[in-house]
Design goal:
alpha+beta, 3 domains, 9 strands, PatA-like N-terminal domain-containing protein, 19% strand, three-stranded antiparallel β-sheet
Length: 246
């Protein structure tokens, strides 16, 4: 079974699979963002955005996308327990989607680096510049909680966003394989020699929007497969959404 999310809204599709107690893999794509959900007996027992697995990844995916594609492949039932009861999962997914939308009005993605104006608890972790994802690890809290704290810090004037992202530290070495992504972005191909990070590539004059679009296409197509590519792709697509809306 496959189709377009314009014809069958995602919530209806999920309820259909649940109601018929189907087992298998549902693959979704909204723009360049993929999501896979594993069903067993109509319950969601696994989910991932590329290599980013679990409910934290799931709840960042739009529950009510305006468009997108889906494909459901029937498979055997497996004994894994549901991630959450189905109705509770849909409710929490909707709630967390709303929270992400609210927090991203001030902080476009968890990869955004913030600086502490007044380095007092809990914002001292941002002193010297840290991303929200790095702060979540330092605090030992879920990413959504860290994003809420960052949102409050920016709103209250305790934090301010710097003009860089955590992914600026990535070093990418082009291996000489002529892929569709690099054909489209030939202007940065020579700079991807592994000797400089992406922040240095941007500092050399390559627009950040061009580097971001390259990364999104390369990650989505599988030409780049670094560890953490799932959360990286999610953050980059969020940043592109913000960029396109301004």
């Amino acid at each position: 079974m496959e189709g377009n999310l314009k014809a069958i809204p995602l919530v209806e599709l999920l309820e259909l699979i649940h109601g018929h107690r189907r087992s298998g893999i549902l693959e979704l794509s909204v723009g360049r963002l993929p999501l896979s959900l594993r069903f067993s007996g109509g319950e969601v027992v696994g989910t991932a955005i590329l290599d980013w697995e679990g409910l934290e990844a799931l709840f960042t995916f739009p529950l009510h996308p305006g468009e997108g594609a889906f494909r459901f492949s029937v498979g055997p039932a497996i004994p894994d327990p549901p991630l959450m009861p189905f109705s509770a999962l849909l409710g929490e997914w909707a709630r967390v989607n709303d929270e992400w939308d609210r927090f991203r009005t001030l902080v476009d993605s968890p990869s955004r680096v913030l600086e502490a104006i007044r380095p007092q608890p809990p914002y001292e972790v941002f002193q010297g510049g840290k991303s929200v994802r790095a702060a979540a690890k330092a605090w030992g809290v879920p990413l959504l909680i860290a994003m809420e704290r960052a949102y409050m810090g920016v709103r209250e004037g305790d934090l301010y966003p710097l003009r860089r992202y955590a992914w600026y530290a990535l070093r990418i070495k082009y291996q000489g394989r002529k892929g569709k992504t690099l054909e489209e972005f030939e202007s940065i191909q020579a700079l991807l020699d592994g000797t400089r990070n992406l922040g240095e590539v941007i500092a050399s004059g390559v627009p950040v929007s061009l580097v971001r679009r390259y990364l999104v296409q390369a990650l989505a197509s599988g030409e780049l497969t670094p560890p953490g590519r799932g959360w990286l792709l999610r953050d980059l697509t969020w940043e592109m959404e913000k960029e396109e809306s301004t």
